[in-house]
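Entry 12.
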Amino acid sequence: MQARLCRLLLGLALCFSLLPLAGTAAWADEGRLDGAVLEQGVEADVGTAAGNEATGPKGRPGADAAGPAADDEGDGPEDGSGQGSEGLPEDGSEEGEDSPPAIELAAATYTIEYRAHVAMAGWQGWVKGGERAGTTGRSRSIEALEIRLKGTGLTGSVEYRAHVQNRGWMGWAKDGAEAGTTGRALRTEAVQIRLTGDLAQYFDVYYRVHAQNIGWMGWAKNGASAGTSRVGYRAEALRVVLVAKGGPAPGSTSGAYRESVSILSALNSAKGSKSITTFGGFSLSRTGLGRLQGAVDSVRSRGYSVGFIMVDLTTGKGIAYNVDQSFYSASTIKGPYVACLGALKPASVPAWRSTMEATIRQSSNEGYSSLRRAFGAAPMRTWCSEAGVSTAIANSDY
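Predicted 3D structure (tokens):
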């Protein structure tokens, strides 16, 4: 009897010595996009020395542990504790509804797809994964867009809306519906994209715009604005990327959106000043200010009136003098008029390029007259209205 008891005790000791020794392990969150499984894990504790009771993962279904084996479904012990033979969590509290299970989204694979309706080209094909929708280098505007998600396992939608020329921000569309306009020759200038439901809990959506006169702008995310507004720039192309929640941005997020409201505010701050005034955070050295004042005094000493305003359109910084006085614009109207045609009538640029260049570079009166006869005052009037400037300068006197 004693011999059998000794052999039994020796066998038990050997079994315990073969148990794997391990410290604390953690199930790391894993998030892969476009065809990968998104999983969220929780920390798992295992025994730290032979003879200690090893505990399995805290409620993580389907996970292996260096302790008592869990079944294939990951249910753990029949009492639902998932904590080994004692059924208690590490802090000694009772198991139950207050101890949330780990979340495993089996087969929750998602891809975001999008396409653009381009001026003079119509709807393009669907693209995905950060590919370009739209065009670059062709002076063509995105007029509308459609975005959709492909995947199963999560609730929610992808919603999006467009800031449209002469319309402003339009209503939200979702899940493949059209945002923007078609058949009206109105440019899209900015976009906002967001996720709802469970999708918003597990993904961030990033997007960026290729804007006229700017190029590729920074990445915006989760409903923030991307592109421009109130500066008359068209959105020419778009990229969209789906990223696991909290993951790194696909690129720089600086300069994702630009608007002219701050510029108009800066212009208003220069009103009423009879002396040289800086605004929008611009500073001028004492030497520079003295030289500029000397130039103004030199012109005035000859019996002429002087007034000017200069603004950096990217920052709103500027300098002005005597801005409230009215002056005949003369040839200074030519540049803005040609610019408004480029913004609102981009299809006309190739055919009229030489005339436009002569109008600006040589201040050609003939070129300017030809453009005005061909396009009239409407483009300039629209451009002024969008910028918050009096449309009076678009009349026939100019």
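Annotation: The chain has a mean pLDDT of 75. The longest strand covers residues 142-151.
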